Amino acid sequence: MPYFQYKGLNKKGQIVSGKKKGASTNDVKEKLYKQGIAAKELKILEGVLYKDLSIGKKVSTKEFVLFLRQLSTLLQAGITLVEAMNILIRQTEKKSFRIILSELENELRAGVSFSEATSKYPSVFSSLFVNMVRAGEASGNLDGILDRLASLFEKQYDTRRKVISALTYPSVIGVVAVAVVFFLLMFIVPTFADMYESFDAELPTITLMVLNAGELFGRWWWIVLVTISIVPFLMKVGRRQSSVFLHYTDFALLKLPIFGVLLQKAAIARMTRTLSSLLGSSVPIISSLSIAQRVSGNEIISVTLQKAKGEVERGESIASPLEKDWVFPPMVTQMIAVGETSGSLDSMLSKVADYYEAEVDATTDQIKSLIEPIMILILAAVVGIIVASIAVPMFDMFDAVQ
């Protein structure tokens, strides 16, 4: 069961607060009532420290999209939101999501709007979701908005999956290469080093470099392993704690050879698809830019959208600040400018998103076909140099003996 943060009044009329474990808000209210506390405010705690181990992990994109599709279908069939939620609770297998849906049902029965109820669970329902649902409630088109959200999350998930797929193969080859080099330097090279030392042979410079590297690995291998293990962690912490570090690492990622173009196209596809969905759902332009900025997934694009929001607040166009940033190609800014002029910005953004999602597909295929031979050649070259550097002097020694 999850934990809830509560605030209420005790029998003396004093304000008290604390944390209480319970299956639902009603369960917590009942427990507090037995303790002489009338609960006024209840909020589920989302942090790791307050999660029951049996609840499980965060809701996956596939589960969430299925939930949105089912909810939209039920609403289109004329079933009320409360009844639809009750049906989906019984169908949901994941305990953590089922608990949240139960809380949403309780909120809806109490007269709280769907957008307000979901806003209390930001780990599942993002600000993008909440604002689009709020717009759907205002326009009376909640089922259509839910269907659009499902499509949006599906497209973003597919794009992200393709990018990860393109990055996975070279990462695996890189790990294998490091493991092979590590094995050679740790176990093979020292054997030859002892043999050459016993013969007191004069060795080529490249052989001496490899032997010294093997000796270094033999003495300090644990430092190398710890460094390799801790660097990703430090990078992650640094990106969370320092906006400057986040900015420069995102800049460096976009400038990477081969992969930078893929990351740039994926980021543009995500940003334009998000903005298109928000504007198409009648979310105000300023709010849409703020949300797109938060979910852009790249600090360079986030900063540019922040500038664009400032320009729009001053009555200027969105395209103007985007044109000044290298991350947005001319085609993107020109289509946005045309969309602003013609009053069809959401439609133009959708076309840009379609184009760049197709570009992500094509670039992913190109990278997969290109990177495999390159990585194999690099691995073969590194291993070949190490093997040759320790084997050639041995053949020279045999020739000298003969």
TrEMBL record:
Ranges where the Type II secretion system protein GspF domain occurs: 67-190, 272-393
Membrane-crossing residue ranges in chain numbering: 166-189, 220-238, 374-395
Keywords: Cell inner membrane, Cell membrane, Membrane, Transmembrane, Transmembrane helix, Transport
GO cellular component, one term: plasma membrane
Coiled coil: none
Compartments, record wording: Cell inner membrane; Cell membrane
Membrane topology recorded in Swiss-Prot or TrEMBL: Multi-pass membrane protein
Family designation: Belongs to the GSP F family.
Protein's recorded name: Type II secretion system F family protein
Taxon lineage: Bacteria, Bacillati, Bacillota, Bacilli, Bacillales
